What does this fold into?
Amino acid sequence: MAIKIRSRIFLRVFILFASLILIIMAFFAFMMIPMQKDALQQIMYTQGVTVSRSIVQATSDAVITNDFGFIVEHNVEVLKNNPSIHYIAVSPLRGQSIKVDQSGWRVLEKPDEHLTLMQTDKIEYNIEQSEWISDGYHFVYPIKFSGIKWGWLHVEFSTKKYNTYIKAMYLKLIYIFVSAMILIMFIGFFFARWVTRPVSIISNLATQVANGNLDVRSNIKRKDEIGVLSNSFNTMVESLYQSKNKLENYNQQLEQEVKKRTLDLDALNKNLDKKVKQAVMQRQEQEQLLIHQSRLAAMGEMIGAIAHQWRQPLNALSLVLQNQNINYQLGKLDEKNMQRSMEKSERLINKMSTTIDDFRNFFKPNKHAEQFNIKTLLISTIGLLDAQFKNHNIEIHINCEEDLNIKGFQGEFSQVIINLLNNAKDTLLERESKTPTVNISAHRIPNGINVTVQDNAGGISAEIINKIYDPYFTTKDEGKGTGIGLYMSKMIVENNMQGKLYAFNDNEGANFVIEIPA
Amino acid sequence: MNIRNFKFSLFLLLSTFNLAFAQQYNEVTLAYLENGLNELSNNKKHMALQFLSEELVKGSDIRISILPVSTFPEIQSLIIAGKIDFVIFNSFYYIRHHDFLAQFIKDPIWVVQRGDQDKENYILLTNKQYADQNIIRLQGQRISFYPHYLLMKLYLEHLTKQSNSQDVASFFKKIKHTKTASQAVLDVFFGISDVCIVPKHIFDLTADLNPAIKQKLSIFHQSGEKFLPVLIFDFNHTNPVHNHIHKNLSKIGDTVRGKQLLDMLNIEAIKVTNQEQLKPMQKLFQSHQVLLK
It folds into this structure.
């Protein structure tokens, strides 16, 4: 498997290895250069001492006898045989100095002041430039005979060789450095590859695994951490492989299930329209049923109301018949009496007939919306229930403005009022209010008309106040309530009259409010 | 038997053995007389002479051996015995032993040139205070010279003899023998001596190193260019292999290697000459001999 050069771990190991070697080399070079320089200076010092001693020894007789000719000749010869010496100067304690260099020699009145400073009792040397000293290693050797100081010998050596050595050393260092760089590149590459290859292999395998290929396995067999990693990797991949198989099985099952469900959904979609229509129809049928039930309930209410209305005339009619029967048995049945009874009976029967007409007119469905007066409608509606309310000693008060007219189905509106009044009546009776009272008020509001039916039965329980408009919800005993009155009332107000029907409690009892836009 | 005689006898013995092999290897012998060529006793220069000899036989199967000889009688014995092919010695011995050598010498002769001219010009140097005066003015003064320049020493003696019939030691108050020729010039410059005698090229060379010398010193007297200081003779011209050496000897300075070797010996060139060119020196010697009588 080829190692990618740009693999980050490979590069890191390679750079780390190369940096380490280079740092070590740089450290050694840093340490070696001053040592080499010191060693070279030591060599130059030794050379200075040797040459100086040799000259002094060879010219000692001449020095003592001031045989400057010999001194010059000797030093010329020394210079001829030692091209690395720039000059030799003899500077006696007193008198002129003689300087011999590669181009000749000359007598100097006195040496350079700078050199005079170097003329001490011990050997002095330096590497610098001055009038006397060129770019070289200047060596000052005190000349003494039997402990008596005679003067100084100045010898300047060329530092060319020294510089060449230093230059050669730098060049060698550069050469070593470059060679090392090449070697480091070469060895570092293989070292980094040796170190990172297993990691790279596992990394590549992991990448393949990440890309979904779970058939790969590491074949690295080692006893170190890499070996453990390899084994763990294989275990992990095997585990993933098994999990994948399980998942694939699950997936297949799921796909089958989805296919089945899709088919079902397709079928369902195909039948949805039909079912919706069926549901709508069911809903319409239910509503029709509700309406029918409502009408039945209304009819029941009407029959009850008629029964109440008829009770008094029927009693009166019964009394008329009893009086006639008594008059007949007493023989007092005459024409006048008969006429009076007939008139009275006819009046009673007409009244009962009128009652039936009133109820029939009231429950006759309105096919068209028409303008009607609220107060008139409230009075006529209360008139239908008046007998029942009086029978239960329930007072009804109307507080209504005279000219409140709205356009709508007055029969339906009247039915809403009846529902609210019947609910108030039933609640007042159930809760046995001491002064059962129902107040009906109607007045204008900014955008329409407000009609409120208020009782003093204590109000609607908080638990059920949100459910009272649900169809078939009732708090009345079984057989007494159908649970559709408020539902139908809300439907009439909100759907047919575009108004609102809501309820709230006050201190006395419940308030049902009808708001109808004008 | 002293050491010198023992060495010479040993050489003769070895030469006898060499002679037996000489025909096989074309071996030639180069002898030189140390006296008068003191520079060659220096090991370094002896080695240079060895290398120079090898350069002379380069390109041939000739083997050359170098033989230092201490005295002229030894040279004479070797010449008589025919043991040596080439000899180098100071010209002083040529003019002194001309009668003996004349029977063995044939042209060409080779001469060593040390200065810029073929022939050397010996000069007396003094401080400028002595300029344009007679040589007698130098009597009683201190003199420095290099004693191994035998011809120069002869010329100095000839001058003193000519001036007032005195030898050098009597003429001068103090004689200083210097270790080099140029040191004699320096002695006069530094006031150690009042006069010196040197070949002119030595003075020029010394002055080149310090021009102040020419400002301070002046040439009091000069011999003129007549002295050929060192001579090389072939005592076996009939040997055909010598032609190779003759050729190489004449053009030794033409090669870089040869030039380097000449430099090591402080020789400018080796040139061919003949006996006619040596006659002025011989005439001087004869004249001096007359003065000595």
The first strand of chain B starts at residue 27 and ends at 33. The interface with chain A takes residues 144, 178-180, 182-187, 189-190, 192, 208-212 of chain B (CB under 8 Å). Residues 124 and 197 of chain B are 4 Å apart (CA to CA).
